[in-house]
Structure prediction request, 154 residues.
Amino acid sequence: MKKAEKIEAMLRGLPVPEAGRDPRLDPRYEGYFACFNGQRYYEAHDVLEDLWLQTRDENHAFYKGLIQFAGAFVHLQKQFHGPHHPKHGRRARPAVRLLQLAAGNLAPYRPLHLRLDVEGVWTLSTTLADQIAGADFANPWTPESAPTLGLEPL
Prediction:
């Protein structure tokens, strides 16, 4: 099965938002939030990357920033689950770099874009990057403290 087919199958398996799908938004964009909020950061990255690779419009950098944001959480989650693993134990620095890149890509879209509180995501990116770097790259992520993202109501 090709990657695009896997993504399509995964999107079909995601829960439909309570208010239903927004026909103005790509299902991959909405799928990003379902995956992210389920702490499936790698899948969130993949779902939105599929859209990003096909998009060269005014949203290109916006999607890239969200992909980087999810990528940072891939690193933090792996480090949390394998803190002494030779490879996974040192993922805070790359997470900080991705959070900084995400903030840079998202900044022009503040405060609100495609129903997302970009200001809130930007603030979380910059604050978390500073927090991790200021704590000698200690990982603050836990499953219980994981952030969630939501779209503004229609």
User: Anything to note?
Assistant: The chain is about 60% helix and 5% strand. The chain has one domain: 3-134. The radius of gyration is 15 Å.
